[in-house]
Amino acid sequence: MKRFRIQQSGQGEQDRQLMFSLVNAGRAIEQRLEDALAGVGLSLAKFGALTHLMEAGEPLNLSECAKKMTCVRSNITQLMDRLEADGLVRRVDDPQDRRAVRAAVTELGAERQAAGAKEVAKVQAALAATLNGTDHGALQRALSAIK
Amino acid sequence: MKRFRIQQSGQGEQDRQLMFSLVNAGRAIEQRLEDALAGVGLSLAKFGALTHLMEAGEPLNLSECAKKMTCVRSNITQLMDRLEADGLVRRVDDPQDRRAVRAAVTELGAERQAAGAKEVAKVQAALAATLNGTDHGALQRALSAIK
DNA sequence: TATAGATAATTCATATATGAAACGTTTTCG
DNA sequence: CGAAAACGTTTCATATATGAATTATCTATA
Lengths: 147, 147
Fold this sequence. Notes:
Distance between the termini of chain A: 46 Å
Strand content of chain A: 5-15%
CATH class of chain A: Mainly Alpha
Low-confidence stretches of chain A: none
Oligomer: homodimer
């Protein structure tokens, strides 16, 4: 005798679920990062900017910052205003190009970035623990396909 | 003879990669949804609010909206201002509680929500295609663990 | 070389989000 | 009953993000 599956979810419903789970997981991790970084006086945006500047090892044009952070330049203008107000970055003139402004990390900024990196590492470890029953390689491959 | 693995990434580095891939994947999907919804005059925030109201089938308190959308109430105040300016929602008095304001979807709002749902379905289908070599069940379970 | 176009940064308007403070209304309880 | 607490919404200040318009400077070329 033929049975009808009760509570069956169609493929479309599962796809929708998966899509929103991806969005929600991303947001949840962002929130964990924001919370952890708030403990050392940083936001994720500020930490990201400081990290790119530290990795570059030298002051960067605001346009270069925008490229590295994949955002528009007017966003960087404002972010640098806030970082400068916090004393974490200084705007310096570019002697080669008088249109340009370069962002230099201050000593306090470098310390703050290092403290932030420790907080990020904790979130990262907690996430790894959460995902300990998962094939990390497969997950990484799936996520990398999403552009 | 013992070999040294060149270019080996430590576990920590892979964990960091995975964490940021999750954040980036979530943002990428949000961006796809924003782009698709922009085509019918909606943002993801507006579509979400309209969808919750349509699912409820009746006007909802702004506080109830905030709870469903997991955001603070002042955010809903502003979102409703914009939805009202668009003619997609109307604020109506709650006769039971004179403090409360309820959001009612207009006819135009209902049409717009339906159009948005079609756009969302397209994004969803494209994502499913992108993930066609992946074990959706395993991915869903991993994502659901992230809170 | 003069100028037209490209480029760097900022300003402004706007959208989305949070959290604190203010305000009116409702509920609770001494 | 009446005061205090709780509740619902809004307002304000702020952070983050986008995109258009503006200003200053630089570069290429007619």
